[in-house]
């Protein structure tokens, strides 16, 4: 991204919140990545950062083809190859054909970023089965389906030492809500708690095949999923009570973490959740002594 972080209207005290892009190291050259839900927000930033680091990227989207094609254009402007692939990650047949499309375009896959996710909020007492199921289907089952196909591909192909120390890398987009309970969002917190133990269990099982599996747990990141948390100065100030570092996260904060987790720089990092949250998991209510 040429200008990764436009100034945030409410970052009054932190006009220079995020470090500017330095000329990217193209240390993922020769690798191919699939990022789900990559037409907006965190997925978009992850796809662009992976592309800037030299990876060729499949940009998955579920409905907004135009937005996905813009991401493709941005990646191609950094010198990497990209293409857009439509799939609903909660549907097995869509996921299978998405992996076929990735193999047809790139030959194989090295990096999966399981990013697609959504919220369908409701007080618990009124939550319908459909609201519960929708979130579990996309946020948990979608990650299961994509991870399974990635493991099948990685195991079949094995390690290519000239490309990477690992046969493949999976990064699951979790959330601080894999550990922080969230009233009014029981379906979402349950899906992310599920992602945590799914990730760790897969990691334990596939490690002998040199497949690395980790999660990123973002805190509050400025994307369309949580506009209501940052769209006015009042909302932003309320949000900052939960963030010891006193700024909202930007999608590029997550993109940079994903590049590290996907690269051989983190080769001995396996089965962890990397919290990228400005300290949101530090019990900020105790900042003043409790
Ligand atoms: P976003 O709404 O911009 O992105 C979510 C993406 O997932 C969208 O592009 C959407 O089209 C896609 N998607 C939804 N359902 C899909 C489906 N069935 N198949 C394929 N794609 C689908 O929001 P975001 O904040 O960028 O969220 C990305 C991930 O980060 C999610 O897993 C979310 O839970 C997680 N996360 C976000 C935050 C935050 O503060 N923004 C915090 C913690 C975790």
From TrEMBL:
GO terms for molecular function: oxidoreductase activity, acting on the CH-OH group of donors, NAD or NADP as acceptor. Residues 1-24 are annotated as: Disordered. Residues 31-224 form the Ketoreductase domain. PROSITE patterns: ADH_SHORT (PS00061). Pfam families: adh_short_C2. PANTHER family: SHORT-CHAIN DEHYDROGENASE_REDUCTASE FAMILY PROTEIN, SHORT-CHAIN DEHYDROGENASES/REDUCTASES FAMILY MEMBER. Belongs to the short-chain dehydrogenases/reductases (SDR) family. It comes from the Bacteria. InterPro entries: KR_dom (IPR057326), NAD(P)-bd_dom_sf (IPR036291), Sc_DH/Rdtase_CS (IPR020904), SDR_fam (IPR002347). Coiled coil: none annotated. This is SDR family oxidoreductase. CDD domains: GlcDH_SDR_c. SMART domains: PKS_KR.
């Amino acid at each position: 991204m040429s200008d990764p972080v436009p100034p945030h209207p409410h970052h009054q005290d932190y006009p220079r919140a995020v470090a500017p892009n330095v000329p990217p190291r193209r240390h993922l050259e020769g690798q191919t990545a699939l990022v789900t839900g990559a037409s907006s927000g965190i997925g978009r930033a992850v796809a662009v950062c992976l592309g800037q680091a030299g990876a060729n990227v499949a940009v998955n989207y579920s409905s907004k083809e135009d937005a996905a094609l813009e991401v493709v254009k941005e990646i191609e402007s950094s010198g990497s190859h990209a293409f857009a692939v439509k799939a609903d990650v909660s549907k097995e047949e869509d996921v299978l054909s998405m992996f076929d499309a990735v193999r047809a375009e790139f030959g194989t896959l090295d990096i999966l970023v399981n990013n697609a996710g959504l919220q369908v909020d409701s007080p618990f007492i009124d939550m319908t089965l459909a609201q519960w199921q929708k979130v579990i289907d996309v946020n948990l089952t979608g990650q299961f389906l994509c991870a399974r196909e990635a493991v099948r591909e990685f195991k079949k192909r094995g390690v290519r030492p000239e490309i990477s120390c690992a046969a493949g890398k999976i990064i699951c987009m979790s959330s601080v809500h894999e550990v922080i309970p969230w009233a009014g969002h029981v379906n979402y917190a349950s899906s992310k708690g599920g992602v945590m133990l799914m990730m760790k269990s897969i990691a334990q099982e596939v490690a002998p095949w040199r497949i690395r599996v980790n999660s990123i747990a973002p805190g509050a990141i400025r994307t369309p999923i949580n506009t209501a948390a940052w769209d006015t100065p009042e909302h932003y100030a309320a949000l900052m009570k939960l963030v010891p570092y006193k700024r909202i996260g930007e999608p590029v904060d997550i993109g940079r973490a994903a590049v590290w987790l996907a690269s051989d720089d983190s080769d001995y990092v396996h089965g962890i959740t990397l919290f990228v949250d400005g300290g949101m998991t530090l019990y900020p209510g105790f900042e003043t002594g409790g």
